[in-house]
Write a structure and sequence with these properties.
Shape: globular
Distance between the termini: 7 Å
Number of strands: 13
Strand content: 25-35%
Strand order of the largest sheet: 4-5-9-2-11
Number of helices: 1
Structural class: mainly beta
Low-confidence stretches: 1-12, 174-180
Order of helices and strands: EEEEEEEEEEEHEE
Largest sheet: 5 strands, mixed
Length: about 180
């Protein structure tokens, strides 16, 4: 029996932390998510833009947390306000794989541009998702890439919950071959 873990995530930016596995990875993405095979040097505003696609970047694989890490979501659900976030902690000593989902609309216009239907399916359990500025900033060092400049001083970093951004996260396992 082979099990895959499904997750529908997003509207962005967010970090997904998975249980580390020798075979861990991304099973599939929707057409509105582009796997960025070469990490950018910066995720600052204006550096990696699109009105139609979010960018999925593998940060680190098999990193063992040297201290506990706060997450914003650790259960299935729909999250569209700060008060709906579950919170949680991934314990020190836990091995994780880290992926960041980045979206920055083209230009600085005040026009409302929304990315819809972005989904990602991972083949290992999701331990937590980070969507708030504080937790994103606190995760840069332990699970981010040292080669990426993260926009820690950007007040717009993270989801704008309550202003149209939301995350839908589902945890389920499916038997890929239809057996028990």
């Amino acid at each position: 029996m082979s099990t895959r873990w499904l997750a529908a995530v997003l509207l962005l930016p967010a970090i997904c932390l998975m249980a580390a596995s020798a075979q861990a990875g991304i099973s599939s993405t929707s057409t509105s998510v582009k796997l960025q095979t070469s990490p950018p040097s910066s995720l600052a505003e204006g550096q990696l833009e699109s009105d139609t696609q979010a960018f999925l970047i593998e940060e680190q694989k098999h990193v063992v947390l040297s201290s506990s890490l706060s997450v914003d979501i650790n259960a299935s659900g729909t999250y569209s306000s700060s008060s709906s976030l579950t919170g949680g902690t991934i314990a020190s000593g836990t091995a994780v794989d880290s992926y960041i989902v980045h979206w920055d609309k083209v230009g600085n216009s005040s026009a409302n541009v929304y990315l819809t239907g972005a989904s990602i399916t991972f083949d290992t359990p999701i331990l937590g998702v980070i969507v708030t500025r504080t937790n994103l900033n606190n995760s840069d060092s332990p699970v981010g890439l040292s080669t990426i400049t993260y926009p820690s001083s950007n007040l717009g970093r993270g989801l704008e919950l309550g202003k149209g951004d939301k995350v839908i996260l589902s945890f389920s396992s499916e038997d890929e071959d239809g057996g028990d």
